[in-house]
Amino acid sequence: MKKVNKLQTLKGFRDVLPIKISPEAKVGVFIDEANLFYIQKELGWKIDWQKFIDLLKKNLNIKLIRYYLGMPLSGNSKIKNLKFKTKLESFGYTVITKPLKKIYINKKLGKYEYKCNFDVEIAIDTTKFLKDLDLVIICSSDSDFVALRDYVLINKKKILFLCFERKVSWEVRRSKNLFLERFRAIIELKNKNPGKTPG
Fold this sequence. Notes:
Blueprint: H1 10-16, E1 26-32, H2 33-43, H3 49-59, E2 61-71, H4 75-91, E3 94-99, E4 101-106, E5 111-115, H5 119-129, E6 135-139, H6 146-154, E7 158-163, H7 170-173, E8 177-179, H8 184-187
Parallel strand pairs: 1-2, 1-6, 2-3, 6-7, 7-8
Antiparallel strand pairs: 4-5
């Protein structure tokens, strides 16, 4: 008989949630790709986003799941991210994009990196959809979302940070959280397939 991972079952997944919710509770998920991308590189494993959404939909009453993706301006990187966006949408994500910005680390040496910050967009969208949700899940370890956490709680809704423990801010650690490392066996990308994170 095939052994079933406890976290894959409805009861098992709810057992590890630090928040008690009913099976009917309406859940909205907001994924900060910029926060998760580099941490995955550091950890040496990547999320399979099809497995990720399947896990959430199997265990929670997901009403919306939004993925915020920085988009290169041109070249192969842009083509790659456009393909990734299409795949995410085929899995059931709503994908929000905006152009990456070139940020200079050292102008004298010409060193720079591309970044994209969606904190404001995620905060605005969360407040916009909050009236129709019972639980907000923020996929980010960024302390900038603490003010959003407080707003959600003031409005008598629940909020959970679902993120990597690596480099998690102390403010998020002290909030209701669940770390993705715990689900590695279920959501890890095992081989090259359409669920792969770009980069």
